[in-house]
Amino acid sequence: MIYDIDASTTEFGAPAFPSSSGTLWGTHLSHWGTGGYMELPTLQIMYDIPTESFLQENKFSSGRRKFGMIVYVVDLHKWFQLRPRNKNTDEYLSLSEYQALSDNEKLVVLNPMASYTVSDFVGDEPVDTTYSGSGNPADCWTELCLSCGNLEIVDVSTSQIFTTEDANKIFHFHTSSGSNLTATVHTSCAAGFNLAVNNVGTGFLSLPGALGVSTVLDAQHSGAFMYKSASSVYAVGRL
Q1: 94 burial class (0-12, 13-18, 19+ CB within 10 angstroms)?
Q2: Residue 24 CB: number of other CB atoms within 10 A?
Q3: Which long-range contacts (CB under 8 A, 24 or more apart) does 133-138 make?
Q4: Which candidate, 165, 172, 183, places its Cα nearest to that of 80?
């Protein structure tokens, strides 16, 4: 159970309070906690949030990482959530899929830069099994848009043709070094059709027809907003 008490913890009989209501000191620094919400200066510091070589008893956290935590990166003015994905398919892990993993498999999806070797005996012979993450520190993090009102955020890992049903949504394309994707606006979309596309992977995302050429977004969470007029598609954004 996630609420089991770890035997190694320090017990508290009541919540922590400052010495007086007017004190200038807080009771906790967010970046020293495990999971929850943190504010960190740069993307690299977020990537460096440490894990240990074992899971905590709740099985959802290791070191200062916890499945579902949110980090605000000051340098980028963006939020990211720790949402582990299958390192082979790049698809998000459901709760049941995550719980079905071994502890070592959980560790490397919580931290894709981790690698652990476990020694077991098969008969009288020692056998080493190595568990390694994808090697890309961004693979467990998904950019959030907490100031987007009621816009729906959709995560996709395949090329997509957008129709009028896709209006007022933000699409996160999860490309990879072996998966370059294409985002195409269907010709049925009327003038004034708008959607937001974001490449959150390491591959290329092409927008065919935009200004007559394919527009390629980089891997640093660049955003592009596409607007389709009656005759052409335009893409603007940070490249």
Answers
A1: exposed
A2: 5
A3: 133/87, 133/108, 133/109, 134/87, 136/112, 136/202, 137/47, 137/112, 137/113, 138/47, 138/112, 138/200, 138/201, 138/202, 138/219
A4: 172
What pTM was estimated for this model as a whole?
0.67
Task: Tell me which DSSP letter residue 230 carries.
Answer: S
| Residue 198 pLDDT level (bands cut at 50, 70, 90) | confident
How far is 239 from 234, CA to CA, in rounded Å?
14
Q: Is residue 164 pLDDT above 90, yes or no?
A: no
Q: What does the alpha-carbon distance between residue 165 and residue 17 come to, in Å, rounded to a whole number?
A: 50
* Residue-level pLDDT at 220: 41
Domain boundaries, given as residue ranges, for the chain: 32-138, 150-237
Chain length of the chain:
239
Q: How far apart are CA 29 and CA 182, in angstroms?
A: 42
Regarding beta strands 215-217 and 169-173, do their DSSP bridges make them parallel or antiparallel, or are they unpaired? Answer: unpaired
Q: pLDDT tier at 75 (50, 70, 90 boundaries)?
A: very high
d(CA 35, CA 230): 47
How far apart CA 230 and CA 165 sit, in angstroms, is 18
**Residue position matching structure tokens 């004034």:** 192
CATH classification number, 150-237, choose in 2.60.120, 1.10.10, 2.40.30, 2.30.30:
2.60.120
228 strand-pairing partners: 193, 233
Token pair in block for residue 225: 């907003």
128 compared with 30, residue with greater pLDDT = 30
